[in-house]
Design brief:
It is a peripheral membrane protein. The protein is built from 28 helices and 24 strands. The chain has 708 residues and is an alpha/beta fold. The chain folds into four domains: 206 residues, Spore Coat Polysaccharide Biosynthesis Protein SpsA, Chain A, CATH 3.90.550.10; 108 residues, no CATH class; 166 residues, CDP-glycerol glycerophosphotransferase, N-terminal domain (Rossmann fold, 3-Layer(aba) Sandwich); 185 residues, Rossmann fold. The strands form four sheets. Strands 1, 2, 3, 4, 5, 6, 7, 8 and 9 form a nine-stranded mixed beta sheet that branches. A seven-stranded parallel beta sheet has the order 12-11-10-13-14-15-16, sandwiched between helices. The protein has a six-stranded parallel beta sheet with strand order 21-20-17-22-23-24, sandwiched between helices. α7 runs parallel beside α8. It is globular, with a radius of gyration of 31 Å.
Length: 708
């Protein structure tokens, strides 16, 4: 068969992926196709499309009205299509090179065929078909199983068949509109072939906040759309299979999405009337094998009594919490936190401090606390500390995730943290949450990350969790205008930005004198007659053993450095707090010191004469001292290209040289005065841009702004 296939590809809001989709079509073994690319601004789209597609007459670019939904765009594509078959390909997805060939080989006399779908986070995937593995299965009474994703993609459908039914997508709904096209089709066809090896790669949406896929749309969008599509399609004329499909779709949506939403019973009113209308259409037979709670929910919903439903919903959530609470020690803590502590009165004089998830007494929370200890002594202070630590003022300390921890984060008027709180933290409306954050960003943050390479998560989950966290922040500290601008965007932050500089940097201004520095050296048993090199690299997002366990390969030749510099220098090794592996410093005694667990990196800055780093944000703070900084960036191409990327041009804007191997580092140390002179002007510019807000009074400014 050599019939023309019309591939319909709406491209709105997915311009960055369009070339990947088009490349997968270019690579098809079956070449008799046309591609209809639909967009509201074709001229701007063509500027990002590779020339080879602009010069290939098979690729047709069609203007669409601004603001239409994807269903309306596909309808335009159907009208413009010249092919014998229609195939829908979303512009952020791509297909295996044998896709169209397998579809045409196996459709036979049937009007429709479906291929297999796989989810992916990547832009390329390969498929190997072994001899004898090209299997085709026929779906008949179970054909609605092919609509589990509620999508028309990866179906190839006869254009003549579509026209004979006058079949089009509803243009009223943003989401679920595919069902208005596919269910009438499913009702007519009796058998649908399914090709196992015709694989469609469906990209997981990686920006659910700024550019969500239709599947990632908000509940405020999904819920009325599902109700509307359900009510439109759910008629008595529909087959038993079709009715069951829609009823199950509605019930599953209610159980998986709305029940969780109704934990906050103020949301019930938004959806209740639509829920009543749709639930009343469900066949009572559909509930026979369902559990008692769902049956009871449906009964009360059908009664159209919102007050009774609210009481029932709250009671059901209470029962679930009780059930989870009696199952484990962790469950009991969660139950007490949610049901008891969060209903107790807020203590207006209570402040909870947490730094790096309770790992240390450090960073900006430390300096805010010490300022308050002197100037706001009427408050009660709680520190989250996982290990016993001596803290000035002798505040009460609690372990993270202990029962006391939950008690205090529920009752404290003020929460001060420099990293994210646990996902289960419930921000009460009377609370003030001060997020200090922990560095001027060099690497891309949260909403600016195009991909996520961390154990136990992906871009969608990571960004959703991060967004839920930042929604709780009342105040966020910015160390400079550059950070303020990035934080607003990358953290989706719309509350009060405190443009004060970092409290943790107050010490770099107020104690930058010889007596203070030597006192610190003696306290830490470091020689006062030698200069200090501080090596503080970042962690790599893709280097980990398992969830929560990270690794790091030390790339400096410390033995060689000791031989050359041991009489004049010592080196302090400060690894990122997420790194779990230990370093072997055998033979380096008296020269190399592991200070990874040293609580206050600002004190390490004060003691150090040279900083060696890479992509860690430590150099932004260290620059307050105007001392030499060397950048050991041996893997810069990998880090910038494959991991998080950078906000600034490292070659042009950093206040020191980029060094690619150990010899480069040693040569720079040997000639540190010449290096400093070479980068003097750039260093001064860097200081003005990133350090000018740090004036030694940041803690004071923050406390005055936040605490009554």
């Amino acid at each position: 068969m050599n019939k023309l296939i019309s591939v319909i590809t709406p491209a709105e809001k997915n311009e960055q992926y369009i070339n990947t989709a088009l490349e997968s079509l270019k690579n098809q073994k079956y070449t008799n196709f046309e591609v209809l690319i639909l967009h509201s601004d074709i001229d701007s789209l063509k500027r990002v499309v590779d020339d080879e597609y602009l010069n290939d007459e098979r690729y047709r670019f069609i203007n669409t009205p601004v603001g239409i939904y994807v269903g309306a765009a596909r309808n335009i594509g159907i009208e413009e299509a010249k092919g014998d078959y229609i195939y829908f390909l979303d512009s952020d997805d791509y297909i295996s090179e044998n896709m169209l060939q397998l579809m045409t080989d196996n459709i036979g006399e049937f009007p429709i065929i479906r291929g297999r779908m796989k989810s992916t986070d990547f832009s390329t995937s390969s498929v190997v078909i072994l001899p004898g593995t090209n299997k085709t299965k026929m779906y008949s009474t179970n054909r609605y199983n092919l609509l589990r994703t509620e999508s028309a993609i990866n179906f190839m459908i006869s254009k003549k068949f579509i026209d004979s039914m006058n079949l089009r997508f509803s243009e009223q709904f943003k989401t679920y509109s595919d069902l208005t096209f596919m269910i009438p089709l499913m009702e007519i066809v009796e058998v649908i072939p399914y090709s196992y090896e015709a694989i469609y790669f469906r990209r997981r949406g990686n920006d659910p906040i700024n550019n969500p896929s239709l599947r990632q749309s908000s509940l405020k969008q999904l819920t009325p759309d599902l109700f509307g599509v359900y009510n439109y399609l759910r008629t008595d004329e529909l087959s038993e299979e079709g009715q069951k499909y829609l009823d199950d779709k509605l019930l599953n949506f209610y159980r998986k999405r709305l029940v969780a939403e109704f934990k906050d019973d103020s949301t019930i009113e938004r959806y209740f009337s639509g829920l009543v209308e749709s639930i009343n259409k469900i066949d009572p037979e559909r509930l026979k094998n369902k559990d008692f709670i769902l049956k009871n929910d449906v009964k009360v919903i059908k009664s159209n009594n919102i007050s009774n439903f609210r009481k029932l919903s709250n009671f059901n959530h209470f029962l679930r919490d009780i059930k989870n609470g009696i199952s484990s020690k962790k469950g009991r803590k969660d139950l007490l936190y949610k049901r008891v502590f969060n209903n107790m009165k807020i203590k207006d004089d209570l402040v909870v401090f947490e730094s790096f998830q309770g790992k240390s007494y450090s960073d900006s929370p430390k300096y805010i606390y010490e300022y308050m200890l002197k100037h706001k002594s009427n408050y009660k202070f709680i520190w989250v500390m996982n290990e016993r630590t001596n803290i000035p003022g002798n505040p009460e300390t609690v372990k993270r995730f202990s029962l006391k921890y939950y008690y205090y984060i529920a009752r404290a008027k003020y929460i001060v943290s420099n990293v994210r709180m646990p996902n289960k933290y419930i921000k009460r409306k009377e609370q003030s949450y001060l997020q200090t954050w922990h560095g001027t960003p060099l690497k891309r943050l949260a909403g600016d990350m195009s991909s996520v390479h961390m154990p136990g998560t992906n871009a969608e989950r990571y960004k959703k969790n991060f967004n839920r966290e930042t929604d709780k922040w009342d105040y966020l500290i910015a160390p400079n205008q550059y950070s303020s601008d990035i934080f607003r965007r990358a953290f989706w932050f719309n509350n009060t930005m405190l443009q004060t500089g970092y409290p943790r940097n107050d010490i770099l201004t107020n104690y930058n004198d010889e007596d203070s520095i030597n006192r610190l050296k003696r306290t830490n048993a470091l020689p006062t007659d030698k200069k200090i090199i501080l090596y503080a690299p970042t962690w790599r997002d893709d280097e980990y053993f398992k969830v929560g366990k990270y690794k790091f390969d030390l790339s400096l030749d410390l033995h060689k450095m000791k031989a050359q510099f041991g009489d004049e220098y010592i080196i302090l090794l400060r690894m990122h707090y997420l790194v779990a592996s230990n370093m072997d410093l055998t033979g380096l005694e008296g020269f190399a010191y592991d200070v990874s667990k040293y609580s206050d990196v600002s004190e390490l800055y004060l003691m150090s004469d040279i900083l060696i780093t890479d992509y860690s944000s430590v150099f932004f703070d260290y620059a307050n001292l105007k001392r030499p900084i060397l950048f050991y960036t041996y893997d810069i191409e990998k880090y910038q290209g494959q991991l998080r990327g950078f906000y600034i041009d490292m070659e042009k804007e950093l206040p020191g040289p980029l060094l690619m191997d150990n010899d480069d580092v040693m040569n720079a140390i040997e000639n540190i005065d010449e290096v400093s002179e070479k980068y003097k002007d750039r260093y001064n510019e860097f200081y003005e841009r990133f350090c000018s807000w740090d004036d030694g009074r940041s803690s004071e400014k923050v406390v005055d702004a936040v605490f009554e």
